[in-house]
Amino acid sequence: MSNTAHDQEWVRKPGEAANGTACTLDQYQAMYSRSVDDPDGFWAEQADRLDWFEKPGKIANWSFDPVDIKWFEGGKLNICHNAVDRHVAAGNGERVALIFEPDDPAAPNRHITYADLQREVVRMANTLKKMGVEKGDRVTIYMPMIPEGAFAMLACARIGAIHSVIFGGFSPDAIAGRVEDCQSDWIVTADEGLRGSKKIPLKANVDAALAKVAAKAVLVVRHTGGDVAMTEGRDHWYHDLSADVGEECPCEQMDAEDPLFILYTSGSTGKPKGVLHTTGGYSVWTETTFRYVFDYRPGEIYWCTADIGWVTGHSYIVYGPLQNGATALMFEGVPNNPDHDRFWQVCDKHKVNIFYTAPTAIRALMREGDAHVTKHDLSSLRLLGSVGEPINPEAWRWYHGTVGHGKIPIVDTWWQTETGGIMITTLPGAHDMKPGSAGKPFFGICPQLVDGDGMVLDGATEGNLCITHSWPGQARTVYGDHERFIQTYFSTYRGKYFTGDGCRRDVDGYYWITGRVDDVINVSGHRMGTAEVESALVLHPKVSEAAVVGFPHDIKGQGIYCYVTLNSGEEADDVLTGELRQWVRKEIGPIASPDHLHFTPALPKTRSGKIMRRILRKIAENEFGSLGDTSTLADPSIVETLVEGRLNR
Ligand code: WTA
């Protein structure tokens, strides 16, 4: 099927969706035009839904050349106030903010109202203060998917500390690198996490990380009750330290451009970057995108299956929903435990109305057959969402047909850690959908497709996706390395933000993300730099060189394919394969576990010593017919050896 075969596969919007939606097509068009013609007026109005201690004097003030991005200057606010306190003050304290669904379906749920949330966040905030945390300090949060993770984020925001959340699947080495990079003296963690009844040794991982870098104090939430070592003077149980803290903790008045959080993400080169988001723009962006994209109506139950360790969890479990006064479900477990119907069982149990997940989960569940879905009612569902990677039309149709009974709209939301929130999506009720296409730009977003030389491509075309105008939720810098921020995002195409994604635009102006065009791979929706996996591999004493590429994987979207050259005298065998796999898991974390290790006597290099990754990608994809010109290789015969190696596996 050709790339464009899906262009005219419209899925008509169901009548139900047009009923009371936030936005009709005409409204979208009018609002979109206004948002790009008069961004100051448009964003001032959106920002008005939030509480400000002081209103901003200026709305947009940015330049992409030189790079300097500011929004809502002069404004003072606190995102924790907007996510928590103002709902209580408005008399909605008894509304449920978070529903906690634990890993074990038989374990008790928790329903946390906005009033409870306020108490819990104040308690956590005062505990952090008691430890010595001050405004501007960096606090590392390494937590399971339990409400205390959200409390910790909101508590940091409340006192003006900058949180850096690290996904629980990262290794001690990865934690150490991130703690060191942002000089974080404080860590919040739990004894253990639970995923599919497997215990994740969070505190032990922190201990191992702190053998390499120093931290002043570690706050430990008791969750599983498992045995953990506590270092005298450094480690504190949360329940002990918080026992006598006060019940008052006013929200710090933050400048709009004060940092809110750092989130580490992978790029094509080097170590993960600490993407930095600031307070005002991020607040407005997550509040507005959540409101329009999910068309949230009071009383509804909203569930995003992401982990708070990723940006999706930040923006669409914590800050977006809570600023809107929504009820968000937090799920600790995994989709296939105790059985492949866990998602649907939870949807029915809590009468979920809006469900937001990743294509990798959809594909994995689709493979297990329809019966897991059809045995559940699912009649509460009203809107489905997808995020993290391109969704293939087959998975889209299954999601729409089997999960959505053929009548529920799907929002396929394209965005990135750096964009803070959703950038391209259809809006339910406003837009018709095409399976596999993210759809149209959100308010204020000006996408542009360019060719390799930066020539602007018009009309129906395919190219590299850039964004030409700033939006409130845009990352402001890379923590501690503004030059890297400029180099990574604004130097490939000067004066434009380059996303790193390839993209097609069809005749109807719908955008179809085709995947990364740089050396970043997307494994089960987890973003990973091939350079990171390579660095991990070459640290092994037997490895001389490594080159890592992505290859198409039925469930994960992309898998990790590693070409490895051993030091002379070393033998490749199954034992070493297992050892290298373990090695990468230890260096980065289980999410970076290689799918294929391909031992080769050499890598294909040009005469100047540059590895020709294009060839390695094609071979990993089994595309031997289109290897292109190999004549510039120092030793063209290596290609044959590599192809043979591929065919033998
Ligand atoms: C990919 C996750 C196609 C894309 C929010 C992007 C998508 C990277 C979609 C960012 C989508 C995310 N369709 N591709 N709906 N959503 N991506 O920073 O390649 O973890 O650049 O942010 O995921 O990943 P990140």
From TrEMBL:
Binding-site residues for ATP, renumbered to this chain: 388-390, 412-417, 501, 516, 527
Keywords: Acetylation, ATP-binding, Ligase, Magnesium, Metal-binding, Nucleotide-binding
Entry's EC annotation: 6.2.1.1
Residues the record lists as binding CoA: 195-198, 312, 336, 524, 585
Domain (AMP-binding enzyme C-terminal) ranges: 532-610
The organism's place on the tree of life at top rank: Bacteria
Residue ranges constituting the Acetyl-coenzyme A synthetase N-terminal domain according to the UniProt record: 28-83
Essential cofactor(s): Mg(2+)
Molecular function (Gene Ontology), one example: acetate-CoA ligase activity
InterPro entries in alphabetical order: Ac_CoA_lig (IPR011904), ACAS_N (IPR032387), AMP-bd_C (IPR025110), AMP-bd_C_sf (IPR045851), AMP-binding_CS (IPR020845), AMP-dep_synth/lig_dom (IPR000873), ANL_N_sf (IPR042099)
Record SUPFAM superfamilies: Acetyl-CoA synthetase-like (SSF56801)
Catalytic activity, reaction form: acetate + ATP + CoA = acetyl-CoA + AMP + diphosphate
PROSITE patterns to which the protein is assigned, alphabetical: AMP_BINDING
Family named by the database record: Belongs to the ATP-dependent AMP-binding enzyme family.
Functional description taken from the UniProt entry: Catalyzes the conversion of acetate into acetyl-CoA (AcCoA), an essential intermediate at the junction of anabolic and catabolic pathways. AcsA undergoes a two-step reaction. In the first half reaction, AcsA combines acetate with ATP to form acetyl-adenylate (AcAMP) intermediate. In the second half reaction, it can then transfer the acetyl group from AcAMP to the sulfhydryl group of CoA, forming the product AcCoA.
Protein name: Acetyl-coenzyme A synthetase
Name of the gene: acs
